[in-house]
Amino acid sequence: xxxxxxxxxxxxxxxxxxxxxxxxxxxxxxxxxxxxxxxxxxxxxxxxxxxxxxxxxxxxxxxxxxxxxxxxxxxxxxxxxxxxxxxxxxxxxxxxxxxxxxxxxxxxxxxxxxxxxxxxxxxxxxxxxxxxxxxxxxxxxxxxxxxxxxxxxxxxxxxxxxxxxxxxxxxxxxxxxxxxxxxxxxxxxxxxxxxxxxxxxxxxxxxxxxxxxxxxxxxxxxxxxxxx
Length: 228
What we know:
This protein has 228 residues and is mostly helical. It is 79% helix and 0% strand.
C-alpha cells in the first residue's frame, strides 16, 4: 500500500496539505485496530476510552468527506469532462466507507458494554477492513483527483474547504487536531503548515497545544510514543 509523498517539493501545496490530513486518518485507523486488539478481556474502562476515540475519529472523517462532497467537488466538476468519472468515484467510495463505519460503530457499541474477547476480535477485524478500504480510497484520491484540484481550484476556493473543516472542529479540539496533522509531517512540512496559521494559533501551540496533544495521545495509546 502506498501513499503520496508530502515532502516532494514539486507537489502542489493543495495536494501536499491534503496528503498531510489524509495521513491522520491512515494512522488513526491503523492504530485503532491495534489498540482494540490489545485490550484485555473485561477491561471496560479501556474500551470506553477507545470507543470515544473512535467516535471522534468517525466524526472527523465524516466531516472531511462531506466537506469534499459539498464544497470541493461542486467547484471542481464544472471544469472536467471525462475526468469527472474520477470525482464521481470518490463520492461513491465515500458512501461505501460510511456503510463500513456504521458496521464498526455497531460492533464498537457491543464490545464497549462488556469488553468480551470475542467481541473485541470481531471489532478489530472490522477496523482492519475499514483501514484497508480507507487507505485504498485515499491513495486513489491523491493519485487521480488531487492533481485535478491543483489545476482547477483557486486559492480562495481551496481556503473555503479549509474554513469548512475548521468550523466543524470544536474549539477545545483545535490543538489536538493540529497535533494530529503535525505528528507524521516532515520538519519542512511543519514549518510550512505553521507559517500559514495566525500568530495567536502558533503561540497557543507552543505554550499549550503540544502538551495537550501529548496528554491526549498518551491516554489513548497507553504509553506508545508520540513524535510531535
